[in-house]
Every structure is written in C-alpha cells, then in structure tokens.
Amino acid sequence: MGVQIFINYNGDCREAAEYYSEVFETKPPVFMTFGEGIREEDHSVPLEAMNLIMYTELEIEGDRIMMSDIFPGMEYKVGNNMNLTVICKDVETVTKYFYRMKENGTVEMELQETEWSPIYGSITDQYGIHWQFNASPEVGEFSIES
After folding, report:
1. Is 100 helix (H, G, I), strand (E, B) or coil?
2. Which of 22, 29, 42, 143 is the most buried (most CB within 10 A)?
3. pTM value?
4. Could you read off the pLDDT of 30-83 as tens digits, one per residue?
5. What is the DSSP secondary structure assignment for residue 55, as one 8-state letter?
C-alpha cells in the first residue's frame, strides 16, 4: 500500500479520530493505547501515557490515515506532527529504502522488530520531512482486535 500519512496529536487523538469518523462516515476507529501496546518487560510506560493512543487508523475514501498521540516528553509542534509512512510487503524493500534515506537523514529510530511489524524505523530526511518505514506482509490489515 505505498505511502500514507501518519498524524500525531497532543493527547486528543481519540477525540480527533472519532470526529473524523463521524465527518467521513467511516467504520468506528479501533484504538490501541500505549498501556496496551508496549510490553512492560521492554519499556516502562509512565502513568500519564497509559491511556494515550499509540495507534489507530481510519479509511477515508479508500486511503488510510494513521494516527497517534505523542509519547510524554516528546516535542509536539503543529506542522511537525505529520509523517509520511512507507509500507512494504517485505523486509528487504523496507531495509533498502531506509538505508538509502539514512545516508543524508537523521535516524529517529533504527530498524527493529516491533509489536506491529517485523521491521520498523523512522528518519527525518535532509529536508526536515519525517518518514516511517514499516513492513507489513498483510498490507492494509489492521491488527488491533476490536
């Protein structure tokens, strides 16, 4: 599924997703909170992050919009709260694209396995654009149980 938009919110992701769902008459959003999505043995989740949205998505007129609250302590600035997300079916393609962009960019998160993907990483390119790279063998499938 190519390139998609990922929008970060400052604690009001749930409200925004529900609003957009009503406006665009989409399926109701399914939410994963940081408390549900981060394994305790890997990372501790501060109390103020437990109910913040780690991930949700909406399909609007055939295109996916991914959304999340920022994690406490991360800077939130309108204009810098959107990322382009490249989703590929295989790890090799994600790795190739990531390392090409890494040459002139700033790595925010090195490629690694995550709860939602066999490989994921993020980079800010030399033009200030934030990119996420994600492998999803079942592109288009949202894996959070409702």
Report:
1. helix
2. 29
3. 0.69
4. 999 998 886 655 567 888 889 999 999 999 878 899 999 998 888 888 777 888
5. E
For residue 138, the model assigns a pLDDT of: 64
Q: For residues 54 and 129, give the distance between their C-alpha atoms in angstroms, rounded to a whole number.
A: 21
Angle at CA 16, nearest 5°, toward 14 and 19? 110
- Cβ burial, residue 58 (10 Å; 0-12/13-18/19+): buried
Does an H or E element contain 75, and which? none
Dihedral angle, C-alpha 88, 60, 37, 100, nearest 10 °: 30
Q: Write out the H or E segment, with its range, that includes residue 133.
A: strand 130-135
Helix (H, G, I), strand (E, B) or coil at 134: strand
Is pLDDT of 116 > 90?
Answer: no
Per-residue pLDDT at 17: 94
**Amino acid residing at 132:** Q
Torsion sign, CA atoms 57, 134, 113, 11: negative
Cα torsion for 83, 53, 23, 2, to the nearest 10°?
A: 30
CA 103 – CA 100 distance, rounded (Å): 6
Q: Which amino acid is at 32?
A: M
